[in-house]
Design brief:
- The chain has helices at residues 2-7, 48-55, 75-84, 105-114, 131-137, 157-164, and strands at 33-39, 59-70, 117-126, 143-147, 150-155, 165-174.
- A hairpin with a 2-residue loop joins strand 4 (143-147) and strand 5 (150-155).
- The chain is built from 6 helices and 6 strands.
Length: 182
């Protein structure tokens, strides 16, 4: 089990729903976390905004969050919806049946900002089924994609990358509070 392996490498492992953790009762003091990792977690929460807000004061002065979030703007999801008129929930992946929230890149960036963080870096995990197509077209100024009846025209490189992305990996840190607000 992942938690057993984690215990051999980490100072503390808590096996609870993030929303239910009483950080103080668990001995987690404000400013005591260097990096908070939410790997494929936020999309399973009813209120990921609250979760990120609760974690922020726990971070050390140079602390950060690292989150990975599936991309609902993925071409496969749009093609399925457009061509078949549905999106089928599955046991895993982008349409995992346990996902409560869905995010595109703009939604992720907005959530990070709204919860008091600033972006440090963002990486993309290109969907394996589009990897070769993306690699062959990523430097073109405009690309057209057609999957069945779905046709997307004149995509710029950033749009192409988002449609080919399965998952975003975000690194962010708490925004500094202006001296006047402190």
């Amino acid at each position: 089990m992942a938690s057993e392996i984690a215990r051999t490498r980490l100072d503390k492992v808590i096996e609870m729903r993030l929303e239910d953790i009483d950080f103080a009762a668990e001995g987690i003091a404000p400013g005591s976390i260097d990096t908070f990792i939410a790997g494929d977690v936020l999309e399973h929460l009813y209120d990921p905004w609250r979760a990120l807000t609760r974690v922020r004061p726990l971070l050390a002065p140079d602390g950060q969050i690292a989150v990975s979030i599936p991309n609902i703007r993925n071409l496969a999801v749009h093609a399925l919806l457009h061509n078949e008129g549905t999106w089928r929930y599955e046991g895993h992946g982008l349409l995992d049946i346990t996902h409560i929230r869905f995010f595109a890149l703009r939604d992720i960036l907005q959530m990070i900002h709204e919860t008091g963080y600033e972006m440090l870096d963002i990486k993309t995990n290109i969907d394996a089924q589009f990897h070769e197509f993306f690699r062959n077209n990523r430097d073109k100024p405009a690309v057209t994609i057609q999957v069945g009846k779905l046709k997307l025209e004149n995509l710029n490189p950033a749009e192409l990358q988002e449609y080919c992305t399965k998952q975003f990996i975000v690194l962010a840190r708490p925004r500094a509070v202006p001296a006047a607000a402190a």
